[in-house]
Every structure is written in structure tokens, then in C-alpha cells.
Write a structure and sequence with these properties.
Layout (H helix, E strand, L loop, with lengths): L5 E10 L6 E5 L12 E6 L2 E13 L2 E6 L5 H7 L3 E5 L20 E4 L4 E10 L6 E6 L4 E5 L6 E4 L4 E4 L5 H6 L1 H10 L7
Parallel strand pairs: 7-12
Antiparallel strand pairs: 1-2, 1-6, 2-5, 3-4, 4-5, 7-8, 8-9, 9-10, 11-12
Length: 193
């Protein structure tokens, strides 16, 4: 199993007890579809290794998990900080018009008004008030397309496209290399200014 055909479910944060239990944090909006999984995949020496799940129980905003063959606190500590993966086939269904952040890498961002692909999605940054697409434009510039709730996004999985209404002037900021270079040439630095 490789990360290419898996998705990141969360992370083992720390041991829970001296019996080998671990604390599992799930990085998902709704953990319910994943509370009955049978196997977790953890990276070991560059590959994903399956760990059978003996039980999983909710503990506040996280879970306590017991993995087969992890019977001591020392064994649990060795798993602390490890990412937890599941096969894409176990991914919960998603609402129409929504997308998983990991799936759009390499897709095209399409401007709705023109129907033209304006950039390739590098990945989704989800660390602020709303997610943003980090994109690469045809001219090689990297930039960001904000996705606040009011922005309508159409998901075209078959075409690997996100069709959206770009904020006015956004493309001008990232595509006007020549204008920026001309402005730099016009502005001269004077010592002592």
C-alpha cells in the first residue's frame, strides 16, 4: 500500500496507557464513517504497514485505539507522532458539489466567466478563516485563490477541474510580470533616501 492510493486520516498523538493503547486524532470533519474501520496504515521505513484495530473508542475530541501486537507503553511510544492512513476505497462519500482537499492536487482551476483553465492546483491550504487553493499559473508564478463560503465552486471530477468565480483583479496580480518588471525599472534607489 502506498500513500498515492490512500488518504491521511489523522495522527497517533501519544500513548494512552501502559497497556499499549494510543490516542488517535482524526483530521476529518465527521469521524463517524471511520469509527468502524478494521485496519489503520502507518508509515514504517518508507512504506505503509497495516495495523489491525482491536478497538476504537471516543475520548472527548479524540479516540483511544488498541492496535494488534502493540502491547506495551514502549511500543505505543514508537508510534507516537505517526500519520495514520486509510485506502481511498474507505473514504466516506462526500456531498454533491464538495471536494476533498487532497483530491484536487493537479486539477485545473477554471474561471467560470470565460470557461478557461487559469492555473493548476498545487494543494489546498486550510489554516485560516477559510481554505485557499495554492496554484501555479501558466507563467510559472505561484499564487492563492481564496475559497470563502460565498464563492460558488463547481466540482467536475471527470475533467479534474474546479470551476469558480475568481475575485475581480486576482489574475492581474499574478499574471502581470511585465508590468511589475517595468515598475521596478522605473523606480531608482538613491543612497540616503
Amino acid at each position: 500500500m502506498t500513500q498515492d492510493n490512500c488518504f491521511l486520516l489523522g495522527k497517533i498523538t501519544k500513548p494512552h496507557s501502559f497497556k499499549g493503547e494510543v490516542v488517535l486524532w482524526m483530521d476529518v470533519d465527521d469521524s463517524t464513517p471511520y469509527e468502524n474501520v478494521a485496519t489503520l496504515w502507518l508509515p514504517q521505513q518508507g512504506v505503509l504497514v497495516p495495523y489491525s484495530l482491536e478497538y476504537l473508542r471516543r475520548n472527548k475530541d479524540r479516540f483511544v485505539a488498541r492496535l494488534a501486537d502493540v502491547n506495551t507503553e514502549a511500543a505505543a511510544k514508537q508510534l507516537s507522532g505517526k500519520d495514520v492512513w486509510l485506502p481511498l476505497t474507505e473514504m466516506a462519500p462526500i456531498e454533491e458539489g464538495k471536494f476533498y482537499f487532497h483530491e484536487v492536487q493537479g486539477w485545473s482551476a477554471v474561471e467560470r466567466s470565460t470557461g478557461e483553465a487559469v492555473a493548476t492546483i498545487v494543494h489546498v491550504v486550510d489554516q485560516g478563516a477559510y481554505p485557499m487553493l495554492e496554484v501555479e499559473f501558466d507563467n510559472g508564478n505561484l499564487g492563492f485563490i481564496p475559497l470563502p463560503d460565498h464563492v460558488k465552486v463547481e466540482v467536475k471530477r471527470e475533467n479534474r477541474q474546479l470551476v469558480l468565480d475568481l475575485p475581480e483583479g486576482l489574475l492581474d496580480v499574478y499574471l502581470s510580470n511585465e508590468d511589475a518588471e517595468e515598475q521596478d525599472d522605473e523606480f531608482e534607489w538613491h543612497e540616503g533616501s
